[in-house]
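Field: COMPLEX_INPUT
Field: COMPONENT_COUNT = two
Field: RESIDUE_TOTAL = 818
Field: MODE = joint
Values follow.
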Amino acid sequence: MSEAAMTSTGEVLPNGLKGVVEDFSADKQAFHVPWGKAMMWIFLLSDTFIFSCFLISYMTVRISATDPWPIPSEVFALSFGGDPIPLVLIAIMTFILITSSGTMALAVNMGYRKNRKLTFWLMIATALLGASFVGMQAFEWTKLIVDEGVRPWGNPMGAAQFGSSFFMITGFHGLHVSAGVIYLLVVAFRVKNGFYERRGGNYEIVEIVGLYWHFVDLVWVFIFAFFYLW
Amino acid sequence: MAYVAIADRDHEQEHHDPQTFITKYVWSQDHKVIAIQYGVVAIFVGLIAMGLSVMMRLQLGFPDSFELIRPENYYQFVTMHGMIMVVYLLTALFLGGFGNYLIPLMCGSRDMVFPFLNMLSFWFYLLSVIILLASFFVPGGATGAGWTLYPPQAIAAGTPGVDWGILLMLGSLAVFIVAFTMGGLNYVTTVLQARCKGMTLMRMPLSVWGIFMATILGLLAFPALLVSAVMMLLDKLVLTSFFMPAIISAGEQLSYSGGTPILFQHLFWFFGHPEVYIVALPAFGIVSDVLATHARKNIFGYRMMVWAILAIGGLSFIVWAHHMYVSGMNPYFGFFFATTTLVIAVPTALKVYNWVLTLWQGNIHLRVPMLFAIAFIFTFIHGGLTGLFLGNVVVDLPLSDTYFVVAHFHMVMGVSPVLVVFAGIYHWFPKITGKMFNETLGRWHFWLTFLGTYSIYLPMHYLGFLGVPRRYYAMGNTDFMPASAQTLNATMTVAAIIVALAQFIFLYNVIVSLRSGKKAGSNPWGATTLEWQTPDTPPKHGNWGHSLPEVHRWAYDYSVPGQEQDFTPQTVPASEVPVGRDHGVTHE
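Field: COMPLEX_OUTPUT
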């Protein structure tokens, strides 16, 4: 028999499958993580359902639309003097957002090493990459609205649902990125001015921001796949 | 980095003791004050919804007698009554009210983990209520789309409130969802991460289990409502065609094309069905605790009760399309959703058996909360069985959109949860206020409510079998309806008015007992759970005085053989009183 686990009040915990349940339902807390991190995970789970509903709704209206669906690789092509290159802007945007996940991960690591200066600059870099993503999204929206005449209620290329789902989903994601940039900046400046130092030097908040940021990136991968590549 | 659980920390935690009247009662961050704020607002809107239902009943019982109730008003009453009862009363009261009050007290915490977020949750809820009620006063009035808000009619001309009412309804729902999310994150995190020493999940009272699971359902189901509200707002405001097909309205071709109205129904019911269990699971939990306490017996099959709550929670996400058998969706879906619907009846029936077996050979005290709890078993079995009828496609088709459906869901998620709300309020009234309520008035309230609601909804099933369609302002002359149907309708209306008036006995009882009720001891029912072991009654800010409680046993050590007292609080160590039965841990 393996060594029996005990609760803090001294009772012996069972082994086997029952023990798995008991471990999970142990006293005081189910997960050994701070409250903020647990809350962020639960929030992201809820947010996952929001994005899933958006994407599934988009797929449904795309399938049931009566007019032909515009071809994404043609709509989202950019020409630099020569032939139009399909999806080039989206490729750059996706690359930037994924890069920002890298700088974010480094920031989390530096936070745990209590390297405040590097944490600050890596978070600023993440925020700047995020802001440039939103900037390019604004450029893409402008191009679609002004040059191509795409409107939420219709467009010259085909099904009206193309424009409506595009603006709704990328807009909702863009709002998430923008909120993330503000969140990053607030925490970054608090790291810099020693706010967390005065509260016991705990930099788990950087990881919590990181969770949110990686989530927003992950969602973008799905939007990229389902909207641009389909 | 090692993380220290809150129960193991010294008193390093930040205190946010209220200083002034404003911070103590208005902008309060104390979970108990927030719970009462939630409760008061929810009961206030509930009274409005009750008033609306009386207006509907007056029209149905005595058609053409009331100039005041025009057809468009009738539809507005239907819509607002439904939405208020389901979302703004029951969801808010069970989770915002009971959840806020009970979770920290029953888990042995000082407060919710994010008190500020908790406070914001209430104020957003109040905002959503104000937006909702404002829709009565805008041009065109509140929306009359039916509480399910199905497009295209919800946003097409001809439906009452199509200009402003529907916008305010959707906006209010969005604000409510934000409020719920802020509160819900708190409830889930508190249950998972902030219990006191010795409080394992398998020692938690079933009230907490029910509220916990319902909150998870809410966090995963409300997103679908939010998304459908956003899309319908876009359809209405910027003329997108998510839900709107090409449509001719009043001889005029609208600019919509190619949308799919059924998508809305799927999204709505993906929210709407879990919503049934968001309301039912807290009721299941609370009723379990009330039954065990007043029957002086441990709850029968505690562990199975917990697994049943989890199973119902999981299954509730794959039954939604049983609301849509007549919608025109793929008929093959009907087989799948009828099967899952019948499967979910298994854990639900298990709970009912366990409640009855808890009463078996118990030392039953028929106090007011117990009366309401036992009444719940009746109405819930009743509503549950008609649910099996409607869950089967072939039986549902003829009964769909008749009064049978209205009777079914009012029995199962109208009357049943409301009875538990009353059971809960009467049960915890001494703890919340420190005063006892008036027992006689409580009994009057109970019998009028219980018998009254039965005499409304039992005959209603019969109307449904006759084929009387629901949501009709007036039936007119039809061959299939005998004249007696109208007599029945009039009787139901009289019963409804009596039930509505009986609720004022309750309000009067609350007010009188608050002012001059007998002083309650800290544990008037002899209950085992932690909220009855607080040093002060009502509990002060921080709940537990100097040190947090320690839990040594499950929540149901009632009438353990060989003990002098017929209950052993969870805080009593096993060395003093042997543990009756404990699912939390085994003992050597």
